[in-house]
Design brief:
Helices cover 45% and strands 7% of the residues. It has 423 residues and is α+β, with helices and mostly antiparallel strands. The strands form four sheets. Strands 3-4-5-8-9 form a five-stranded antiparallel sheet. A three-stranded antiparallel sheet has the order 10-11-12. A two-stranded antiparallel sheet has the order 1-2.
């Protein structure tokens, strides 16, 4: 049974491999996405450690001179009308810090150092022969420096667009997005609706707001003037991944003979700030920097700080995960948003469906905190969901019916990791 699932997952990863990286989905997302590639590397390392290294190296090959790792790296050979917003919208190559290849100017959650460390561990001898970590380490450090300096708010990292959270239309962004005047729908042409039903994607009004914010950021020269930006939020998942990745950077530094201490200290500082600023009522929430207010809604992002080692509030997060809002282990996949919340929608993208990558993060976090029974049950439920629905982009969290794209890369990758790593 597991052998068939394993083989099917490998087939998806091979089919979506372009020769240098893996597209998230051939139809819907025909370019390289930043955090997708990190999850893909975590699965791909079991098939070919070399390919997993290449996946990350391709992404960091498009790093900007200011350290940012763009959220999309465009395939110059792909049809320009295949994805919106494409290179013509972002105009990255007009910017002095951008690489020669066209990219977006936004970023995504920093899972990369964690992925690099796990990739190294899949085959240390081969990675050492290729000089994988000594080459990637300075780039990872520059990436984190970009986040800490250009996006830093009191030891935490801010996002300036919902796309930067990876959870694009999460209800946690609704209040802040209300203040943004949408670009009218006739001002751009969406391509996503050619591939996925409208009821499973963000609305046109959401898209209008995404386009407005991204266009304003581009027109500022991607300048990161947080005081002037309309949308400045502290997201628990972005910050949890930043802290976990700083811990991974400490491991990487120790492996290559660099000093791990600054990374350990940064991980501790971010972990402490995350608890102090974002934790309330047994849960981690998003914080609006301009409004100086926590958004008390619960999304799965608020459970992911479990990936931070020695998190003092981990028992409270586990309790919240098991309660009525997320019913951990009693749904097909953990929902992306509170099952009892006013905005819960089981079909629409990041407003309720279960996603495999965030489930993997919760599983990884439970394992890190020694919650092996809960981790084991979550793993079993996730494998059952994949067996029943296939490698869909997301699922109805209660029935497990597939939604969004098919043959989705990070779904195959994290399922493969669960099969090959656990129990
Ligand atoms: C989704 O986001 C893109 C924009 O970046 C889109 O909807 O067009 C999100 O699920 C994001 O987390 C993911 O990285 C991307 C590619 O899978 O798709």
């Amino acid at each position: 049974m597991n052998t068939a699932l394993d083989r099917a997952a490998v087939d998806v990863l091979l089919a979506n491999w372009t020769g240098a990286y893996t597209v998230p989905s051939r139809a819907l997302y025909p370019h390289q996405w930043s955090w997708d590639s990190a999850f893909v590397a975590i699965g791909l390392r079991h098939v070919s450690a070399r390919r997993a290294q290449r996946e990350l190296e391709s992404l960091f090959g498009a790093q900007w001179a200011d350290g940012r790792v763009p959220h999309i790296v465009f395939d110059p050979a792909a049809a320009p009308e295949g994805y919106f917003p494409g290179p013509d919208f972002w105009r990255s190559t007009d910017h002095p810090a951008s690489p020669a290849i066209a990219t977006s100017g936004l970023v995504q959650p920093p899972v990369h150092a964690l992925a690099a460390w796990l990739t190294f561990r899949a085959d240390p001898a081969q990675a050492r022969r290729r000089g994988f970590l000594p080459r990637l380490y300075p780039r990872l450090v520059a990436w984190h420096r970009y986040l800490a300096t250009r996006r830093g708010v009191d030891d935490l990292v801010a996002i300036v667009h919902p796309w930067e959270s990876g959870m694009d239309n999460s209800p946690a962004w609704d209040a802040a997005l209300c203040r943004v005047e949408p670009t009218p729908a006739h001002g751009f042409r969406r391509r996503d609706l050619l591939h996925v039903q409208a009821a499973e994607r963000p609305t046109d009004t959401d898209y209008g707001r995404y386009v407005r914010l991204a266009g304003d950021y581009r027109d500022s020269g991607y300048a990161d003037r947080l005081a002037d930006a309309q949308f400045v939020l502290l997201d628990p998942m972005v910050n949890a991944l930043y802290a976990a990745s700083e811990s991974a950077l400490a491991d990487i530094a120790a492996e290559i003979g660099a000093d791990p201490r600054p990374h350990r200290e940064a991980a501790e500082r971010t972990g402490a700030a995350l608890v102090a600023r974002l934790f309330a009522d047994g849960f981690c929430h998003a914080y609006d920097v301009h409004e100086r207010r926590l958004d008390r809604q619960r999304t799965v992002a608020g459970l992911t700080p479990l990936v931070v080692a020695d998190l003092p509030v981990a028992p409270a997060l586990v309790k919240s995960a098991l309660g009525d809002h997320f019913r951990l282990g009693r749904t097909a996949l953990p929902p992306s948003y509170d099952l009892t919340g006013p905005a819960f929608d089981p079909d629409r993208y990041w407003r309720g469906p279960g996603w495999f990558n965030t489930t993997w993060l919760v599983w990884h976090g439970l394992t890190r905190h020694g919650e092996l029974d809960h981790a084991g049950r979550l793993r079993d439920a996730t494998l059952t969901a994949a067996r029943q629905a296939g490698f869909r982009e997301y699922l109805h969290p209660l029935t497990g019916e597939g939604r969004g794209a098919t043959d989705f890369s990070w779904t195959a990758a994290v399922v493969l990791d669960l099969l090959r790593t656990a129990p």
